[in-house]
UniProtKB/TrEMBL annotation:
It holds the Pfam family Chromate_transp. The keyword RNA-binding does not apply. The lineage of its organism: Bacteria, Bacillati, Bacillota, Candidatus Fermentithermobacillia, Candidatus Fermentithermobacillales. Belongs to the chromate ion transporter (CHR) (TC 2.A.51) family. It is a multi-pass membrane protein. This is Chromate transporter.
């Protein structure tokens, strides 16, 4: 196993092991590791990866890991980065699932989960703010972003539909 593949495995295992709250909550950790620390992607390319990851089937973290792994070390890098991001979560969820079934009514467990929830919200907000300045680069992207937020929150419009419509609009607007 070459150094790049090992780096991918270890980096994505760290991301997988220390992220709570799903793919959106992982975005700040992936950004720091992939863009800032390792320099595998620049911020613009990473934002494009996030957009593609949201528009394709599967979790954002797995899709991102697969892309980054492929870019850095080909198919084997893709497999190792994807395995790295999945394995810690799989093992942790297996153990926690068994423990939760046994101890779910214990006040300490209830209190601990209540303490984690606000952190997850903060991580998701942090992810949104970290990509905001690179994604909303003018008045048109700002209007589209605001319209999508309103459509999702106020009118419960399907996010997939909004992604498709935004992609089509982007195709015609930025040709």
């Amino acid at each position: 196993m070459n150094r790049a593949v090992l780096d991918l495995l270890v980096s994505f295992m760290k991301i997988g092991a220390f992220s709570f709250g799903g793919g959106y909550a992982m975005i700040p950790l992936i950004t720091r590791e992939v863009v800032t620390t390792r320099g595998w992607l620049d911020l613009t390319e990473f934002i494009d990866v996030l957009a593609i990851s949201q528009g394709t089937p599967g979790p954002i973290a797995i899709n991102s890991a697969t892309y980054v792994g492929y870019k850095v070390a080909g198919v084997f890098g893709s497999v190792m980065a994807t395995a790295g991001v999945v394995l810690p979560s799989f093992v942790i969820m297996l153990v926690l699932g068994l423990l939760f079934l046994k101890y779910r009514e214990v006040p300490f467990v209830k209190d601990m989960l209540s303490g984690i929830r606000p952190v997850v919200v903060a991580l998701i907000l942090s992810a949104a703010l970290s990509v905001l300045s690179s994604s909303v680069t003018g008045i048109v992207p700002a209007v589209v972003s605001a319209a999508v937020v309103v459509a999702v929150l106020a009118f419960n419009v399907d996010p997939i539909l909004l992604l498709v419509v935004s992609g089509v609009l982007g195709f015609f607007m930025y040709r």
